[in-house]
Design goal:
Elements: H1 2-11, H2 30-35, E1 45-46, E2 53-54, H3 61-71, H4 86-97, H5 100-148, H6 151-168
Antiparallel strand pairs: 1-2
């Protein structure tokens, strides 16, 4: 992906409204990556710098270029209210009218919902993993018990009996 990404950065290097760049999340860029919730590498984020979204498209140059041409443009935001529909304009006005502490509290409450959802997800995935491991162990115990009960010997006797029947004919 790196060569295609570098090619895309070169293609949009002179754009005044589109930024295609990269950040090394293991070095100087680590605080920025933590701020925007980058957990895996490579991650692609796009959109308003204060509300970046995860890119979920193809990772080849053609897919990236198509997405960039169609999607990397000014979007509805407090800086571009003229690009917003009436509902988003109303939301922006509502948030702008809030006291700074109230807005921060509202943001913190929504971020807490995201953290809670992530924790709930991880807990449930762990429960699934635990269940899987338990079921696998139970199955392996059953398979071992069946084999120890003489299944192989029964099959050998059956095969030998079948061979004797054919020999008699």
């Amino acid at each position: 992906m790196k060569p295609d990404w570098d090619k895309l950065m070169d293609a949009f290097a002179d754009s005044s409204t589109q930024l295609v760049g990269d950040v090394d999340c293991t070095a100087e860029g680590k605080p920025l990556c933590e701020q925007f919730g980058v957990k895996g590498y490579p991650s692609i984020k796009w959109g308003d710098p204060s509300d970046l979204q995860d890119y979920k498209g193809g990772r080849d140059y053609a897919s990236l270029e198509t997405f960039a041409n169609q999607s990397l443009k000014p979007v509805c935001s407090p800086a571009n209210v003229d690009l917003c529909d009436d509902a988003k304009k109303a939301d922006i006005q509502k948030y702008q009218a809030m006291a700074a502490t109230d807005l921060q509290s509202a943001i913190a409450a929504e971020e807490q919902k995201l953290e809670d959802a992530e924790k709930d997800y991880k807990d449930k995935v762990q429960n699934l993993q635990d269940t899987y491991q338990k079921l696998t162990a139970e199955k392996e115990e059953t398979v071992a018990a069946v084999k120890a009960s003489g299944l192989g010997l029964m099959k050998s006797v059956q095969a030998a009996a079948g061979k004797e029947t054919k020999d008699e004919l």
